[in-house]
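Title: Prediction job returns without error message
Component: structure pipeline
Severity: low
Priority: P3
Assignee: unassigned

Description:
Job completed but the reporter wants confirmation the result is attached to the right record. Sequence as submitted:
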Amino acid sequence: MTYSQHLSTSSDLITTREKIRAGFVALALEKNRIATPIIAQARALKASAMQARKASDLIKASRLKPLLLAAAGVSNKAAGHMLEDDKTETITRFIRNFLEPAGANFVEELVYRFLLTRGDTLGGSVRNIGGALAQKKFTEMITLALNATKVSYIFLTKRNKVLCTSDSDSESALADVKAISWFHDKLNRTIVYNATVPIVRKNIDICVLDCSYRELAVSSKIAGKYLALGELKGGIDPAGADEHWKTANTALSRIRTGFAQENIYPHLFFVGAVIVSDMATEIWSQLETGSLKNAANLTRANQVESLCRWLCSL
């Protein structure tokens, strides 16, 4: 029972109120960090717009075109599908309908509308912020487990750039990781995040494969290469705990069914930031029956460290 190294009862899985409060604080600070570039853009827009005598003069400011489009409610994706004439017409109508009526306060109106529309974009960026923070923390724990056994590893970034251990200590590197790969005792192992598993035909949060990062593209299509698969849920709001577990449990059931059809039974595990009582009972039951091989509460470092050591030993 691998989970017995860090779990004694189902109650060990439950997230404490202190950890929930700390999680909310961490999320708030991360949201502000992500918002910083938008605030800088708004300041730059204000400084440039103040050089115009009246709102209609902004039409001639070609360098402000991207920011004016954003203030008008045009996303970067939408702008990529527009012709230059379309962009000019949109900005012209935006100025005429919303900035000119503001009179001498047109700069203030412009900045407010820019922040409003960019705030909506920010909302999309932060919806999965809990997941991003969870993955970063999990990566840190995996590297700790590998460092403890003096095993060298490399990171594969989301842009398929390879970073050696010595290059991968920065915050930005950890946030950009797509896969972690290492070689030890004549065995190649790779952990990949958010991968579509062909046999399941769904995206799985964490997969451990018997391959090097160079073989990942081919090996990820072979069911027998999967050693372990798990769900990682970083949301910290207790109100959403049951829904997170329902989603994860459905994914885990789908994995069991898909691989069983090939008579292959990889290890399954679950890691969650917020685990409430009923949820902990269900997870514990699956651990005892063997449906789940391992589980950990993301807010409890000793549990995640233990689970990561297990994954690195497969």
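Comment from assignee: result matches the submitted record. The radius of gyration is 24 Å.
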